[in-house]
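Lecture 7, part B: from sequences to assemblies.

Below are the input chains for today's worked example.
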Amino acid sequence: MSAAPPNGSPLHAPPPPRPGLTEPAWVRWLLIGIVVSFLGCFLLLPLAVVFVSAFAKGFDAYVAALSDPIAWSAIRLTLLAAGVSVVLNTLFGVAAAWAVTRFRFVGKSLLISLIDLPFAVSPVISGLIFVLLFGAQGWAQGKPVGALWPIAWWALVLIGVGLIARGAVGLPDYRLAAPRRRCSWARIAIGFASIGVALAADRFIQPWLAGDNDLAVIFAWPGIVLATVFVTFPFVARELIPVMQSVGQEEEQAALSLGASGWTTFWRVTMPNVKWGLLYGIILCNARAMGEFGAVSVVSGHIRGQTNTMPLHIEILFNEYQFAAAFAVASILALLALVTLALKTFIESRIAAIDAANARDELATE
Amino acid sequence: MSIRVRNITRRFGSFTALNDISLDIADGELVALLGPSGSGKTTLLRIIAGLDVPDLGTVELAGEDATGRPPQTRGVGFVFQHYALFRHMTVRDNIAFPLSVKPRHERPTKAAQHERAMELLRLVQLEGYAGRRPHQLSGGQRQRVALARALAVEPKVLLLDEPFGALDAQVRKELRRWLRRLHDEVHVTSVFVTHDQEEAMEVADRVVVFNQGRIEQVGTPEEVYQRPASPFVHRFLGDANEFKAHRDATSSWVRPHDVRIARYQVDGSVPATVRWVKAVGPVVRVELSRGPDHGPVEAEIPYERQADLRLVAGDKVFVGFDSVRAFSYDGGAGI
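Predicted structure of the full complex, as structure tokens:
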């Protein structure tokens, strides 16, 4: 019945190549030689140069370059931007992949195209968008929270009204033998709290913000975080959508019919099936967030010790002919790239193993 | 638990999957929904389970309206055609899953969950497979795990969507007998979808025949086979010869095994020529021609009969029909 080989059995060795079906030895060696020397010149050599140059003035200079407070502040800002990007884009990516693969709605193909927008536009333009939105001469006239406040106010009030209404009408309680609607005091309370927060904030926080206390976005860390989030937001969604499509919905429906709530189904059935794809997306997102230069450069203002990320800091050091220091910081980024590569390879091997298991599934089903 | 389906209509875009369906299933029954693919039977099953929502109509479970109720609260066990086992969990964890997601105050302890899972594994005769992953099992074994998992919630209704559709012929036969025995033991109201008439007749107490989103006939396996309510049912539940009578706008139907072949004319038999003869196991299939004005006749005779007759292509014989059913052209009832 099952055509699958027993677990752990060695794969069949490929038959020896036949003359006429493969190239002569000298062609093979020539091609392999070209590829290896190309990789050596363009990838391995530069990587080696980074580390060699980093230690050109000795180990002490290397440590000094990294322990410089300005370098530290750049590292901290890079970690902050990358951390926020990974968290927000993971949430967004899961939500977007869920919406795209599980629901049918108008404008779905438009949403899929929009997810790719940051890939399509130049990072410099991504940065400029935020300058135009939040810069002193831009739409918000340098007061972003004040400009966005009316939207937040309406959102809070509408959510409050909605919660009160739903709480008052109540939800049918299906655990009862004869389902009947029960009014939910918790919902009503949260609804009133939401409206209360909106009114209080309007009364107290809004005037304080207007008095020149608004959050600075451009030439400050929030702008850098925003630009990084924008540039990296396709990664998780892009990785997750095909994975969720191929896994399908049957297991989720099975879980629902077996009594699991939507939330439980998500954590215990959906997540384990897509976790490697998700992790892959997160790693790519993180790598790009740490290395991002263009968009961040536009909104940063290059204030030393305050608004420089690692790539910006490296550029400044390089322009000031501090080559050893520049390469010392660069070596950290390069190391990070190597770690990313290793993780990526590991995850790919996991995904390949899972695919192979699924392929065996198919065989056994037939 | 009884199931009562009232005037259900379900459309997907311009395609009408179910057209004003009503059906009653009594407590403890084993019912087959039989029909060609695309006839709406799976859609009805999913609507009963709460995995799909009807555009019109209601579903009652145990006499209570359940149309809008989410699947979690219906007390229904659903077995999917492709098993839908959780691929990252062991067989035991798969079966214990419905117990592990119960609300905290109803949830059995881990040990009790495992014990119940092992109990169910014994029921489906897979005791030794608790630690395996789904992909290490054969198709038939996976289907039995899926069944054990559906039974773990102690469902009041068991719904099976083409449960044996993806299995090879031998395993199919074993599993459907086993399902029948299981139902006789557990006595849970069960509905299963199939497009295999033999499977439906062998396993079910009652058969519901679907065609193009409508129910053609409901009855015991014997009723639908012996007294088909429409030409469609007649054709779907086995091979049939159709004879059109244009004068009174009716068509007559005869099953191949109801065609009698003789060397000499008897009452009511008509002359025919043998076109070809082929032995298929215990029966012999014969195609005959009644001349240019009539369509070919297919007959099925026992092997012993052929031993007497020794039919070969070109023989002139006489055919008679034992049991003829006639339907008027508008698809109406038999005459």
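Note for the exam: The longest strand of chain A covers residues 171-172. Keep this in mind when comparing with the next example.
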